[in-house]
């Protein structure tokens, strides 16, 4: 096992398409790093570049301090799990697990011991004598994961390994996979478009857009302190609402103006935000910081709105509320014009038994201490809550 370093890595295709652009990324020894991003952002290409199955257009990749330039894929000592499992169809599950160990001429007794241990961890002992075509998608993926984890390579590469599973199986296997990876203390790079997987599995998460890493951070930091509006709009379900507003001073304090309404700014604008007083800003509001003012313990700042849609999620209601302020949309690709913004919609979390219905007038208690502020031109973060 070893660390993985990508230094100024690029991948440009013959037609000029840039898949990965000057990427710098460091994965620590024993760390599980998850790469997320929209479709076509370059996350799977990055994994293939590390694996050596796709050539570099520029930069270097090192594994365990050893440069991988001109090192073929088979000699990189990596184990990879693909989206569709990619089991050998003519081999039983047991033979699939044994194959990688056998070609390394490992003693038969040690192979038996490793396969037995891995099958117990993944609960596939009863599947070992079956061919892949007789297994469900979830069972096939368990075997594919076992085939990778049964040996101890320099690093694991996992490309959307849980995509084709149903929701229940995906959550169960996600939990097991996180336990296995962290239990082994392996270096792993995990690609997914599923933010729940990313936040549950990763020690750190890298968010990519158009071949560039926008931010790398621990899941909690990524969620609470997004580096820019793209990360803010991508991380979270529902994502942070981004609203065009202004920051003004008057009446004995500072105010956040959103359309025809305003909220008291918590404290005094400082740092980069201090220079934006009297200027437009992009305001970020997460659903958990909005609720019904009537049920809030001590409602301070309040926004008046109309419930546009009510989603009943069992433990709570997610109430989509309109606001007479422009919504800020962030495109997946820089330089591409976003969709027309239109009126902002906020998502608020209400108690499950709340009687609110679509069309009702609502008063939203806002936890202003949790607001985020961004530059409306560059999208860069200006202010985050402590």
Explain the layout of strands and helices.
Elements: E1 4-12, E2 18-27, E3 32-36, H1 43-51, E4 58-63, E5 66-67, E6 78-81, H2 93-102, H3 108-122, H4 137-149, E7 155-159, H5 167-184, E8 188-191, H6 195-201, E9 204-209, E10 212-217, H7 219-224, H8 229-234, E11 241-250, E12 253-258, E13 261-264, E14 280-285, E15 290-292, E16 301-312, E17 316-326, E18 343-351, E19 361-366, E20 372-374, E21 381-383
Parallel strand pairs: 3-8, 3-9, 6-7, 7-8
Antiparallel strand pairs: 1-2, 1-4, 4-5, 9-10, 11-12, 11-14, 12-13, 14-20, 15-19, 16-17, 16-19, 17-18, 20-21
Helix pairs in contact: 2-3, 2-4, 3-4, 4-5
Question: How would you sum up this structure, described in words?
Answer:
It contains eight helices and 21 strands. The model has no long low-confidence stretch (mean pLDDT 89). It has helices at 43-51, 93-102, 108-122, 137-149, 167-184, 195-201, 219-224, 229-234; strands spanning 4-12, 18-27, 32-36, 58-63, 66-67, 78-81, 155-159, 188-191, 204-209, 212-217, 241-250, 253-258, 261-264, 280-285, 290-292, 301-312, 316-326, 343-351, 361-366, 372-374, 381-383. The longest helix is centred in the middle third of the chain and has 18 residues, at 167-184. The protein starts with a strand and ends with a strand. The chain is of the alpha+beta class and 386 residues long. The radius of gyration is 24 Å and the shape is elongated.
Measured on Cα atoms, how large is the radius of gyration? 24 Å
Provide the succession of SSEs.
EEEHEEEHHHEHEHEEHHEEEEEEEEEEE
Number of strands: 21
N-to-C CA distance? 36 Å
The structural class is: alpha+beta
> Residue share in helices?
10-25%
Task: Quote the beta fraction.
Answer: 25-35%
Quaternary class = single chain
How many helices does DSSP assign? 8
Which regions have little confidence, pLDDT < 50, spanning 5+ residues?
A: none
What is the strand arrangement across the widest sheet?
Answer: 6-7-8-3-9-10
Main sheet record: 6 strands, mixed
Average pLDDT, all residues: 89
| Net shape | elongated
């Amino acid at each position: 096992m070893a660390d993985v370093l990508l230094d100024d890595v690029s991948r440009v295709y013959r037609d000029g398409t840039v898949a990965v652009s000057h990427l710098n990324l460091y994965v620590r020894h024993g760390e599980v790093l998850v790469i997320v991003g929209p479709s076509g952002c370059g996350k799977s290409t990055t994994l293939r570049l590390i694996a050596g199955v796709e050539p570099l257009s520029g930069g270097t990749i090192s594994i365990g301090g050893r440069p991988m330039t001109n090192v073929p894929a088979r000699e990189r000592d990596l184990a990879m799990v693909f989206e569709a499992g990619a089991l050998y169809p003519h081999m039983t599950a047991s033979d699939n697990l044994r194959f990688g160990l056998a070609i390394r001429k490992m003693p038969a007794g040690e192979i038996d011991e490793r396969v037995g241990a891995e099958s117990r961890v993944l609960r596939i002992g009863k599947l070992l004598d079956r061919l892949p075509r007789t297994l469900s998608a979830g069972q096939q993926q368990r075997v594919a994961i076992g085939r990778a984890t049964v040996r101890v390579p320099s690093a694991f590469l996992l490309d959307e390994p849980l995509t084709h599973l149903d929701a229940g199986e995906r959550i169960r296997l996600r939990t097991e996979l996180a336990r296995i990876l962290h239990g082994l203390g392996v270096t792993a790079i995990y690609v997914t478009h599923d933010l729940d997987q990313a936040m549950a599995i990763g020690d750190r998460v890298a968010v990519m857009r158009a071949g560039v890493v926008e931010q790398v951070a621990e899941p909690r930091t990524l969620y609470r302190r997004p580096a820019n509006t793209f990360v803010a709009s991508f991380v979270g379900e529902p994502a942070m609402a981004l609203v065009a507003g202004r920051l003004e001073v008057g009446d004995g304090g500072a105010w956040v103006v959103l359309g025809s309404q305003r909220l008291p700014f918590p404290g005094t604008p400082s740092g980069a935000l201090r220079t934006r007083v009297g200027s437009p800003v992009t305001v970020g509001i997460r659903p958990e910081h909005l609720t019904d003012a009537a049920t809030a313990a001590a409602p301070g700042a309040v926004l008046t709105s109309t419930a546009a849609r009510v989603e009943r999620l069992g433990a709570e209601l997610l109430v989509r509320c309109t606001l007479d302020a422009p919504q800020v949309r962030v495109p997946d690709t820089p330089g591409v014009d976003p969709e027309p913004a239109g009126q902002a919609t906020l998502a608020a979390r209400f108690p499950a038994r709340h009687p609110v219905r679509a069309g009702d007038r609502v008063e939203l208690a806002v936890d202003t201490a949790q607001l985020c502020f961004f530059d409306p031109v560059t999208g860069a973060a200006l202010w985050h809550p402590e």
